Amino acid sequence: MKKKLFLLFLLFFLLNLFWEVAHSPLYDWNPSMQEYVPHILLYSFMDAVYISILILVISLKNENIKWVNNPARRDMILLTVLGVLLAVFIELKAFYLGKWSYNQLMPQVFGLGLSPLIQLAATSIAALWIIKSNEGKYKKI
Questions:
Q1: Phi and psi (nearest 5°) for 64?
Q2: Domain residue spans in the chain?
Q3: Residues forming beta bridges with residue 113, ordered by sequence position
Q4: CA 73 → CA 22, 66, 67, distances in Å?
Q5: Which of 25, 31, 68, 91 could form a disulfide with 35 if both were Cys (CB 3.0 to 4.6 A apart)?
Q6: What span, in angstroms and rounded, lies between the C-alpha atoms of 57 and 105?
Q7: Quick one: pLDDT at residue 141?
Q8: pLDDT tens across 68-110, in order?
Q9: Contact assessment for residue 7 and residue 131, using Cβ atoms and an 8 Å cutoff
Q10: Residue 108: phi, psi to the nearest 5?
Q11: Which of 4-13, 22-31, 112-121, 131-140 has the lowest mean pLDDT?
């Protein structure tokens, strides 16, 4: 189970790294590569930590972490809802602290970027799906 949790965290990080790189042109910033790489890596790592916390919250509700082996529909829905709510909090906090802003390409919902609003939910569900669909392959690790 420890290997699976490590693989999940790694997947959370990699999927969020991909997402961060893909949607970074939607933000109003043009850093040098020297600034860009550490920021993207930090944001991706923090997103992986946030998702891990959501996984732990659902594990507390289920009184067991093994739900990640075969997530029930209600757990996936809860993960989606919690992911979106956490993203709203993160975006509102960043907005009011002036940490970042969007450019005209970012689709927005109530002034918040659509891409970051769905990121945590989408990447967490994708990671769980990837782990589940490759169940037999990583047991050799």
A1: -175, 140
A2: 2-140
A3: 108
A4: 28, 15, 11
A5: 31
A6: 34
A7: 47
A8: 888 889 999 999 999 999 999 999 998 888 888 899 999 999 9
A9: yes
A10: -125, 150
A11: 131-140
For 34-58, give one letter per residue: b (16+ CB within 10 A) or e.
eeeeeebeebbeebbebbbebbeeb
* Selection from 12, 17, 73 nearest residue 44 by Cα: 17
Element (H, E) at 109: strand 108-109
Measuring CA to CA, how many Å separate 70 from each of 18, 46, 106, 122, 132?
Answer: 25, 25, 35, 17, 7
Closest CA to 101 of 28, 35, 25, 26: 28
Residue 102 CA to residue 12 CA, distance in Å, equals: 24
